[in-house]
Amino acid sequence: MSMTEISIKRPVTTMMVFVSLVVVGFIATRLVPLEYFPDISFPGAFVQIPYPNSSPNEIEEQVVRPIEEVLATISGVKQINSNAGENEGGVNIQFTQGSDIDLKAIEIKEKIESVRNQLPDDFEYYQIFKFEDGGGNMLQLRISSERDLSNAYDLLDRNLKQRIERIEGVGQVTLYGVEKKEIRIELLANRLQNYNIDLNDLNQRLSRSNFSISAGKINDAGLRYNVRPMGELTEIEDFENLVIGENNLRLKDIATVAYTSPVRNYARHLDRKYAIGLDIVKESSANTVATADRVLKEIEEINELPEMQGIQIYEMNNQAEGILSSLEELMNAGVLGAGLSVVMLFFFLRQFGTTMIVATAVPFSLVVTLGFFYFLNISINILSMTGLILAIGMLVDNAVVVTENIHRHRRNGMEPSKAAVLGAKEVGIAVTAGTFTSVVVFLPNIMNESFIAPYMFYIGMPIIISLIASLLISLTVIPLLTSKFKPRSKQVKRTVIDKLSDKYSAFLAWFIERRWVSTISIVLLFFSIVIPILLGMNIDMFPNNPERELQLRYNLNGSYTLERVKETVDKVEDYLYGNQEKFEIESVYTYYQPEYAQSTIILVDEEDAEKSVEFIKEEIEKDLPVVTIGEPAFEFRSRNNSESIRVYVQGESMDVLTELADQVEWRISQVEGFTDVKSDAERGRDEVRLTIDSEKAKTFGLSSQAVARSVSNAVRGQNLRKVRSANSEIDVILALQNVDKQSVADLKNLPISIEGDRTTSLSTLASFEQASGPGRIFRQDRKTSMGIAVNLEEGMTPDDARDKLRSIMDQIVYPAGYSWSYGRSFSNDDEAMGTMLFNIGIAFFLIYLVMASLFESLMYPTAVLACILYGIVGIFWFFFFTGTTFDLMAMIGILILMGIVVNNGIVLIDHIIHLREEGMSRAEAVVQGGKDRMRPILMTAGTTVLGLIPLCIGTTQIGGDGPPYFPMARAIVGGLIFSTVVTLIVLPSIYIILDDFKLWAGRIGAKAKG
């Protein structure tokens, strides 16, 4: 007994089962979390390496290279990139697809710890960040005030940071832009010389004096006690009165000790005011929207505190807003699409009751899918919502085919219950196979280890679950409800569809009788795909989609005082705000350091804008103030955050690479089609290089290493053991007084302690040279590299850019040991295209397997597969006429389209085969089958197309700032419209040709046997 028969015989049981599923789905909707992006981990990690007061060379040689070398021994490493700059470095590791990044992160930590003894003694810590899409800051806040907040760390930590940390769902809160106070011991150079103080010995003495250790346990009067000798220094007076030499010499005699804020070497501006930042990261399992609401509510209460009066807290970035706006846009598109689909159904069915019966498949399937979201631990996010929207137009397909077939029998006078059972039974296998073909196209993308698999999982699972739910309702509830309705009275007036059906069947009979006409039409339609390609249809897997935000980099030509950089930043910001309305500027955020500065210009929203981003950029550049310490220029930033097109020169010497990069930058900038060409070369700080005379040092009883350590302790400063306070730990820094203001003469006079209680100046032991130090050092796959970034002008395709860049780079003469290579932008395109083509091929094969099992034939599925090929032809024509760029989203559209277009082919071919089995001739069966299936094919195609129209014509983007949906929607719509025409006209001819081939092969086989 089939499901349809059971549902009709047990109507109450059937309805209760489905009501239960709906109730579970509605309950689950309250439990499924809302997220921006799901927690998608990629096989990559970044190791951040802070090493304060160090040059790029020091960090590269002493820290980055040892870490880079040991990380290269980890299995599965695909690529290692590193960089070393002033005060910090970083190593970026990419692993092969399928690697478990959580395990790799543990392995990275173990490897770094294994070479800890090779790193400098004062190297303190590093951080490992895994690449995640669902991570990042949930909220970014900026704090500004007319008050001086430079010493407000304790105030903000107590009233803001700590209160937010206690909120449910908040994982981490980072406060920056204002520094935690520290105990600073500043040595007086003249006192060091007078008292003959050895800096290395003083450092060790202070470290020994500040201790707290366990000395075991003792018994006394039957009780057991821990013994803990205490030597911790906790107060300023403790440090000042610490005896450090003979004759009761105390630390305060040679140094000043103060509890003060550290010297700040960076600053932030928000709307021309000094700004402090606060980043908030949620717990991995927390609901982003609910957590953000709780944080913002807490901030409202914080703003009412008397201590916080005059301090403004701004939202710089709020993931919850992106979630709600994107989901709202998708929801509106889905509701509108569903409404249009219902209108299309009513147009064909001309009966309100039947239309509502068919339309029930949509809400039921969606609610059931949300129930499965809860049990499968899938959140409602940008990707899963996309899958639901794409499924809306497809959910009525099965119901339409079943209902139309039931109505066909009822119009022939069959009793309602029998018509429901027979009608559902006849198309049951066809709709089941059609559903599974739509499901199997996602399997290669969900189950493989490509970079796109995590995304396709969250897009594909909603489609898979909802389609299976729609199949179940189509074979049970739909026949049950249809059998309870009275048959529609015979219509006297023929509808447009009836007239169209007659004309179609007549044309189809004429078309299949003229074999040469049909054959030539089949060939010409297929090869017409070359026309849009040759006429210049744009193909770019990762097109640049500029957001309403501009990045203005100052490109400082040296390292300057923070005050000098601030003067330049103020000059540019005054210009921008002086033309705020003209440039449609909403806000300007600037971050700057002595050697780096960048302003983020946030433009008004697109709906309020009158000018394009490119036009505003040109207007700003026209009268941009000239600054003496740099060359301000825009950097392009794409919505998909993909790397700009980039080429690299590689070798060993950074000086040689800088010269090559400058030459490459100039040559590329002279070629039409390239814009914003910028080398990664940075001019390093001016530095004083001192060379220690080892022979002289030896005569004084010193080693070169001891002298270097004394200089390092004096100039760089030394972090001593932290001091515990009531609320936290306090850093203790030992350094020369006003070390940041010391001159070369002061450095030469630095006292160095020697034997015999004497001192000498550093100038007697070393020679001095002033020179420009290196800028940031970049390495790719353990080779020193320098990148040159390039943006493309409108009309220049990546393929054209690749050829032009190769021509330019091959003309340059490279020294021995130096070469060039493309950046990852081209390899990303190739990898994406290759992965998608492979997945499409596998999906093609799986669809063939399903249909071969359905038809029990190897020949007939080939006819249905032609629908996919013609669907792709339709995509190219549709993209050409609409001026749409073929990108990765369009490739995803092809995958979804593959599962849709074969449904119509299966329904048509399956019905033709049934008619032939009932005794019709082949020609009669083809014509009658086409006439019977024209209505459901047009209905299913029409509902799907209308369901996607809002996404086709809208500019909705993934996450509000990601790639737009419309290329994917247009691929489905364009391919489906074209393939529907092919299914109705060309597919019957292909079926006849393949059937003739089958008969011919059978005759050849019979003759061979005979």
TL;DR?
The chain is of the alpha+beta class and 1010 residues long. It contains 33 helices and 30 strands. Strands 1, 2, 3, 4, 20, 21, 28, 29 and 30 form a 9-stranded antiparallel sheet that branches. Strands 5, 6, 13, 14, 15, 16, 17, 18 and 19 form a 9-stranded antiparallel sheet that branches.
Overall geometry: elongated
Label the structural class.
alpha+beta
Roughly how many Å is the radius of gyration?
36 Å
Please outline the major beta sheet: 9 strands, antiparallel
Q: How many β-strands, per DSSP? A: 30
Mean pLDDT: 78
The percent range for strand residues is 15-25%
Number of helices: 33
Cα(first) to Cα(last) distance is 44 Å
- Unreliable residue stretches: 211-215, 637-643
- Bin the helical content: 40-55%
Task: Please describe what this structure looks like.
It is a single chain. This protein is α+β, with helices and mostly antiparallel strands and 1010 residues long. Helices cover 52% and strands 19% of the residues. The strands form seven sheets. Strands 1, 2, 3, 4, 20, 21, 28, 29 and 30 form a nine-stranded antiparallel beta sheet that branches. Strands 5, 6, 13, 14, 15, 16, 17, 18 and 19 form a nine-stranded antiparallel beta sheet that branches. It has a four-stranded mixed beta sheet with strand order 12-7-24-23. The longest helix is centred in the C-terminal third of the chain and has 44 residues, at 966-1009. The chain starts with a helix and ends with a helix. Mean pLDDT is 78; it is low at 211-215 and 637-643.
